[in-house]
Amino acid sequence: MTLRRLTSVLALGGALLLAPGPLAMALAAPAPAAKVMSQLPQVSGPIPVTATSRPFLGAVEVMDAAGYVEEEYFLSGQANVYDWVGATRDLKVVAGPGKYVTRILIRRPRDPSKFSGNVEVMLLNATTGVDLGGPIDVKRMVRQGDVWVGITTKSLTANALKKFDPVRYAPLDWTNPLPAAQRCEYPSIIPLFMIGGEAAARSLEPAPPSADEDGLVWDMLGQLGVLLKSEDRHKILPGFGKPTVYMVGISQSAINMRTWFVGFHDRYRTADGRPVYDGYLAIVGPGVGRLNQCSSDVPLADSRHKFLPPPKVPFISLSSEGEMWIGAYTHQPDVVSPKGGIVTYEVAGSSHARVDVPELARGGISAAKPDDAAKAGIRPDGTVGLAPSGTVKNDLIWAPVVRGAYHNLQLWVRQGTIPPQAPGIAVDANHAVKRDQYGNALGGLRTPYIEAPTATHTGFLTAGGYGGMTGSKKPFSAETLKALYPDHAAYVAKFSAATDKLVAGRWISAEDAAAMKGGAEAAPVP
Asked: Looking at the predicted structure, is the pLDDT value of residue 417 above 90?
């Protein structure tokens, strides 16, 4: 099995890519990165949609029915390749600048007068080998009049786009500015600790030197922010007013987002000196990655995984229990003010993948159709083998908390409303999760599925690799259920009380709460 194929068998994991080799960059003394950068990228498009050419991950019919326009553009410019200066947060340029071309997919209200002012920039996830991701809360986005911008963030998915439509996506360009002789043997921007250790990485067959460089992404993201904050935004948002811009990333993309924040948030500025991104939501990616695909990991114990001093803009880090093998090292105390700071949420009992309430229809626009994914090089067996045989997959519902976190981020950025806070998941001196008598985690943000439990939920199976992305579920015996809940009404009452507490605390919406309660009413408990 090739390494490129292995990257396609992961589902939302941010793991199991390639291991690093030595930093083979025989360059002169590197120049320091500019302290303030405000370069505008070039924009071309919208790329025409025809009977034979359409955007990958497109949902034009769904958006049209909602009064939205969906358009795709190419974003191009010059990008450097960076690395850390020793173990500091300072940056150095190790290659470039080199030309890049990536793509952005935009969903905006058809009528600019309905624009809320919010722009969600989603770093499209690359873990399955194709672009994946959509608006965090489609219904609220449409109701408010928010704009969504998805950006391709990795050469792997850019090349998949070329497989999907070689003509449409021919301009995409992530060419490595280093000569081939200076590239490393094991190119990867994903940290080695996400793979499951060096032995796991070295067991994979070697990859050829990469003709692409994923480290170009940092300047792409910064220049996109500059574009959205400048008057040039009218090239992609015609007639739209000045926006408030949020960066959102999930899993591998959340790690990239945190990396961008640590290295580049204070370096990219608008013409009047303001940040190009006003708020951040990092979901299931509590760590910092590599700055280029031949650099070394930032060790888990390194302070660069934490924001010191706390950020001057709002930052919400949202993790499942499934990331506690990382989060136990990278967690930091909440520091908040009306203008900014960081809050960390760790959802007890949950696993890496966001499970939603079955009763809610969310308009599936986050993943490509199976036929489109196959055309891009991904096969239907892409998620086989994520959990060991005989394991019951953890299905604890926590997507409503994600939607609530994004709404609280908007309130924090726009109105200065301090977000709710919760304790972290309890861990012992060895960073192992502490558990109650039923095997569920102690502490953390607690949903009704943990406060009124019907099963033991484990967030992850092993640290790193496949086991870091999936957990297990062990339903309670009939005897245990009967001891906990004398009758169905008792179960519903306890579940409902826990749900109402989340609504009162502004953790979830009333709509989500109603759907969750409906599920409890229908559940055969005890």
From this structure: yes
